[in-house]
Automatic annotation (TrEMBL):
Residues binding Mg(2+), per UniProt: N219, D233
Subunit structure: Heterotetramer of two alpha and two beta subunits.
Species classification: Bacteria, Pseudomonadati, Pseudomonadota, Alphaproteobacteria, Hyphomicrobiales
Cofactor binding note of this UniProt entry: Binds 1 Mg(2+) ion per subunit.
Protein name (database record): Succinate--CoA ligase [ADP-forming] subunit beta
Presence of keyword Metal-binding: yes
One cellular-component annotation, GO: cytosol
Length: 410
């Protein structure tokens, strides 16, 4: 495994994987089994037994219950369905698998459902919300708790903020019973239920810190009619910079749920995040990358990505970075902005030229180089015979790429 690095998206896992992980830490979760075919789903229901089952689409997005399948009639049910028999489970699984579920979080393209989670039905009395995240302002793990479970927490925060309780845990002391009592109080629990809340809080905190999570969301956390607290859903994201410590977590990665460009970037140890704009950026250094994106916005366009090739990039890494940018169909122009400290400008130039010759260039390309071996880099680009627009500084580069893109669009 590679060591930690900056600028990567969290690694998410599916609900059934998250519940299996939480169960290892003593967290109460409902019984369920993963299914990849309608036959798997039917067999899972038969094994679980009971009078009701929940068929859940497994995608890395929320809002599944209210989602709609592209290929199915508008009146068809969403991605979370309650049914009564194993035969019903099989029929619903056949309808869901292989189809595209569109939710409020997937965007209009949706995500194809390749996995299901078949879960035992639950007798629910109340639904709560509980999540944990890293609070950057306090550098602590924070809890967010609400009695309004099963709802969009952003909507709750907007309409009834008084129903949300937040607190953080001092890493010097770690989680204490008092934190569990805060959860119980926020949810209106007493007696044995308060004791369950204390144990749940401690176990969730241990799972969060031991596995280097960046987000743990339980929505809903339910109170069953037989007075048990159970995590009925679980959304987990991991700090990608800490994955080198957790090969067992890396094994849970589902690349079909990720942007292929970000997958390719991870293979070359590139810090890449796809954005919604039209100007691709290749920069070395996170600060310079942010400044590059800001100045593109200043001149009226939006960046298509954050891409930091790092301080010691090779020709092969630069070539890969350029290919990733050009693979985005929304890119209308590319800005390469390199300040050579450890990174040499001639290496960047060789990588860019190699990528352009291999893939062709169908959009304007502006290159700004400064620092180590800058003259050699400029000479390589100048003598390449390619239609590359040189720039003297960042401001000049941003103006030139925006102008070139506008000219192409005119």
């Amino acid at each position: 495994m590679r060591g930690p690095r900056r600028g990567r998206n969290p690694m998410n896992i599916h609900e059934y994987q998250a519940k299996a992980l939480l169960k290892e830490f003593g967290v109460p979760v409902s019984r369920g089994l993963a299914a990849f075919t309608p036959q798997d789903a039917e067999a899972a229901a038969a094994k679980l037994g009971g009078i009701a089952f929940v068929v859940k689409a497994q995608i890395h997005a929320g809002g599944r219950g209210k989602g709609k399948f592209k290929e199915l009639p508008a009146e068809a049910k969403g991605g979370v369905r309650v049914v009564k028999t194993a035969a019903d489970v099989k029929a619903n699984a056949a309808e869901m698998l292989g189809n595209t579920l569109v939710t409020i979080q997937t965007g209009p393209d949706g995500k194809q459902v390749n996995r299901l989670y078949i879960e035992e039905g639950a007798s629910i009395d109340k639904e709560f919300y509980l999540s944990m995240l890293v609070d950057r302002a306090t550098a602590r793990v924070a809890f967010v708790v609400s009695t309004e479970g099963g709802m969009d927490i952003e909507e709750v925060a907007h309409a009834t903020p008084e129903r949300i309780v937040t607190f953080s845990v001092d890493p010097a002391t770690g989680v204490q019973p008092l934190h569990g009592r805060k959860v119980a109080q926020a949810l209106g629990l007493s007696g044995d239920l308060a004791k369950q809340a204390v144990a749940l809080t401690a176990n969730l905190y241990r799972a969060f810190t031991d596995k280097d999570m960046s987000l743990l969301e339980i929505n809903p956390l339910v109170l069953t009619r037989d007075d048990r607290l159970v995590c009925l859903d679980a959304k987990v994201g991991f700090d990608s910079n800490a994955l080198f410590r957790h090969p067992e977590v890396v094994q849970l990665r589902d690349e079909s749920e990720e942007d292929f460009k970000e997958i390719e970037a991870s293979r070359y140890d590139l810090s890449y995040i796809a954005l919604d704009g039209t100007i691709g950026c290749m920069v070395n250094g996170a600060g310079l990358a942010m400044a590059t994106m800001d100045i593109i916005k200043l001149y009226g366009r939006e960046p298509a990505n954050f891409l930091d090739v790092g301080g010691g990039a090779t020709k092969e890494k630069v070539t890969a970075a350029f290919k990733i940018i050009t693979a985005d169909p929304n890119v209308e122009g590319i800005l390469v902005n390199i300040f050579g400290g450890i990174m040499r400008c001639d290496v960047i130039a060789e990588g860019v030229i190699a990528a352009v010759r291999q893939m062709g260039l169908n959009v304007p390309l502006v290159v700004r180089l400064a620092g180590t071996n800058v003259e050699e880099g400029k000479k390589i680009i100048r003598e390449s015979g390619l239609n590359v627009i040189p720039a003297d500084d960042l401001d000049d580069a941003a103006q030139k790429i925006v102008a070139a893109v506008k000219k192409e669009a005119a």
